[in-house]
Amino acid sequence: MMNKLIAGSVPYLPKKIVWQFSKRYVAGETIDDALNIVQDLVDKGMRVTVDLLGEFISDLRQAEENTRTYLQMMERFSAKGVRASYSLKPTSFGLLLNAEACYQNIRSLVQKAAAIHSFVRIDMEDSSCTEIELRLYKRLHNEFPNHVAIVLQAYLKRTLQDIQNLTTDSSAPETINIRLCKGIYVESEKIAYKGYEEVRRHFLEDLEFMFKHNLFAAIATHDKYLVDCAIQLIEKLNVPHNRFEFQMLYGVTPLLRDELVAAGYPMRIYVPFGKDWFAYCTRRLKENPKIASDVVKALFVRQ
Ligand SMILES: Cc1cc2nc3c(=O)[nH]c(=O)nc-3n(C[C@H](O)[C@H](O)[C@H](O)COP(=O)(O)OP(=O)(O)OC[C@H]3O[C@@H](n4cnc5c(N)ncnc54)[C@H](O)[C@@H]3O)c2cc1C
Q1: Number of domain units in the chain
Q2: What pLDDT, in 10s, does the model give residues 50-81?
């Protein structure tokens, strides 16, 4: 209850204080801040995907600005010899304003990723975007099969069918790379599973299908139960280590993350950065009010 209260008051706290708690979850404001954190994670044996935090955009000029920033980031990372992949949200590139302009913006990023031997992952947003984002992915995947990846959410009732369709529609299913996560948006029970155990069950069902059909599986969860079950599946089905990776958010469950890395499992960390860190962090807090006590610590403990 107390944690919920604190979490609710975070948007009204001075940014400087919220930053004391947020810096565990966000690399900083600039490309160079992101580079430093990424280099550190890579040195510790992890892979990284970088995300530029963006607020809702209201005109296409902002989409073009975001495209330019991603291109600069890719150029800078590549020039420094730092290997990373890039995650993005299509609405930040104009998806809901002009789907074709959005496609062209993202296409230019995938093309750049191909030139620097990397790839772009299309994050999955709320269910009003599922169909268009899947179409966007398929179109890009036809042209750049090894340089674009997608996310699917286990809580959506349609997801297993979506995975099956991607598998049967593709002439090269081994190039399909899906990040499977539980899903973060509030969706109606008509289209989404609501029970905690039910979502876990479908997550594992989707994952098993992906393993059995040789799709690349990015297993995005901090849920120890799911991690353990995924490992059991990997062992049972003899899935080679180059056909999956675990993924976690920067700063979340670092002990579990380090255990997996030490045990030799591939791990990719999702590293967000950018001027819009404040909105991102208050969202993370609402998701998990238990960590609100960190904010209180930041209030009283001088860093
Ligand atoms: C790499 C990555 C990419 C993602 N991309 C997308 C996407 O494109 N679209 C989408 O809808 N969702 C995305 N998500 C979010 C995902 O859908 C879940 O909402 C989120 O990961 C929480 O689910 P969980 O599987 O970790 O399990 P949970 O049951 O929520 O969490 C398990 C445990 O992990 C810890 N934990 C979880 N989240 C947090 C947190 N934020 N802060 C502190 N501790 C936490 C807690 O100890 C919790 O008990 C992504 C998640 C990851 C890890």
Answers
A1: 2
A2: 999 987 789 999 999 999 999 999 999 999 99
Average pLDDT for 108-125? 98
Question: Measured at the alpha carbon of residue 22, what is the angle toward residues 2 and 303, in degrees to the nearest 5?
Answer: 90
Judge whether 158 counts as a catalytic residue: no
Q: Tokens 């530029």 appear where? A: 52
Identify the CATH number of the domain in which residue 243 sits: 3.20.20.220
Q: Where are the alpha helices (DSSP H) in the chain?
A: 2-9, 15-22, 31-43, 60-79, 99-115, 127-143, 159-169, 196-212, 224-237, 254-262, 277-287, 292-300
Q: Which of 178, 186, 222 to mutate to test the pocket of ligand 1 (most atoms within 8 A of CB)?
A: 222
Residues of the domain holding 54 = 32-273
Within this chain, do residues 65 and 86 fall inside the same structural domain, yes or no?
yes
- Ligand 1 centroid vs 238 CA: distance in angstroms? 26
